[in-house]
Amino acid sequence: MARKVIIDTDPGVDDSMAIFFALASPELDVIGLTSIFGNVRTPLATANALRLLEIADRADIPVAQGAHDPLTRLFEGPVPFVHGEDGQGELFLPAPSAQPLAIPAAQFIIEQLRAQPGEVTLAPIGPLTNIALALRLEPRICEWVDEVVLMGGNALVPGNASPAAEANIRNDPEAADLVFGADWPVTMVGLDVTLRVHMRPADIAEYATHGNAMSDHISRILPHYRRYFEANYDARGIFVHDSSAIAYLLQPDLFQTRRWPMRVTTAGIGRGKTLPTTGGQTLPAWSDTRW
Ligand code: RIB
Ligand code: CA
Question: Is the pTM of this model over 0.85?
Fold first, then answer.
């Protein structure tokens, strides 16, 4: 039976790749998309989620709109230089025909997990505000979830939104600290992984050769995104962030994992840094540390 997944997303070019990757994988049953600010503001993330489902001919999948701002601050703003003003490589697509659900993302997540305990995996590939809000409203989602597999954070490598922090976590560190601190299984597919998942120009060129609506769309939105990476990193091609979390859902044995307690820095120049306890059993865990 296909694994049920809710993708919480800020589409976003690499989010679009990840959503289509999941939709094209028979092992996964995408039961909903929830939108969040990050690469774009939340209303545009919602519209893009609806647009992507229409392109994929999967308008049957519901979209629930998420929070407009992080838990404790206003959203600092989108990143058009990475994903385009429209979050879709500046294609400026027409408005979607469908509407989001009447309930907010956090409520949708709670209702889905309550109705199908043990069956639904959460795959957040944007800032973690919706997941934290759902946790706050209904802590029992910890018991009901199958697993949380998220793209975000940087354990042992530098950040990409600041020298310290990765973009998704940096956008709402308080939410991320709640999500990592909750009593549920979280797998972080962070920059430690995704900066090693590199798509070269020849790989990118393949998107234009498949002749289906999803791959055609990706081939059209990738040039803007690729220009950002080639101008700012010593790279030819792109890093494949969000799809790496979907790849983990499909084939976890491709990945090496470590089991480390995790906290998130919420203040100072390290704001948004994910801080694992890497020291082994002889060193104090975060819970035993006084500060
Ligand atoms: O740091 C990479 C993450 O930030 C990805 O989720 C990308 O879409 C952006 O949101
Ligand atoms: Ca994303």
Answer: yes
